[in-house]
């Protein structure tokens, strides 16, 4: 059997060389040089067009190259019977937590006010609220969401979290399910979205959610572009329903140069850079799962392809 790779070119040859070095006994092929498609039983792919996997009739294990897997599962021809894993570890989650903390502090401490004042040469003093007076809410309690919530609570924010199923996180007030969403949003001034993208969460960052938050709230979204309803975000910022937003993932990426979102006041755009797996994380996680799969052991970070996460 053989492994087919189609990897992110940002890592150059280092990524495939790392995989080859860690799996010297495996037949590793690089797309488009796949050879006989019936040989392929393991695949690691960065992006793929719809139907890409159809020729590989003996495929048993599919690996993403990062934490997100929704774009794979949106393929109507994705073989639901195979096992799937993603790439995430503590370093990957820590990078996301860093992003969340940086932008939470940016909005809490109103750094935009001071940057604008500096541009005007204006000594614009402003009294800051204590972190304990600021109510932050994290949507999603996977590996990334949980660590972000823990770190927000650790530096003193009044932190809550919301997820589909019940969780307990020390120093974090946890809500769950449709019945807990209103109470969660009603107490959340700074909303952090780290949800997986599923049919239930698609479009969740829209008018209905913004209206249930306290007036003048903030949204930080570092999950998937499909969560966002762009027109609703712009309308909420223009109306003052939201006072600011930081968005890292958009429905269309890269965000087109002529997109009006670049110019919306109080909207901060980052280029889907909130967290990226290190080369070593990808190599270690993927090759570790290959060994586990060959030995019949439990896999790391296995995805429920029906639930979507």
From TrEMBL:
**CDD domains in alphabetical order:** GDH_like_2 (cd12164)
Keyword NAD listed? The answer is yes
Which keywords has UniProt assigned to this entry? NAD, Oxidoreductase
Q: Where is the signal peptide?
A: none
- Keyword NAD tagged: yes
Under the heading Pfam families, the entry gives: 2-Hacid_dh_C (PF02826)
List each copy of the D-isomer specific 2-hydroxyacid dehydrogenase NAD-binding domain by range: 104-274
InterPro entries reported in the protein's UniProt record: 3-OH-isobutyrate_DH-rel_CS, D-isomer_DH_NAD-bd, NAD(P)-bd_dom_sf
Q: Name one GO molecular function term.
A: oxidoreductase activity
This protein's name: Glyoxylate/hydroxypyruvate reductase A
- Provenance organism: Ancylobacter defluvii
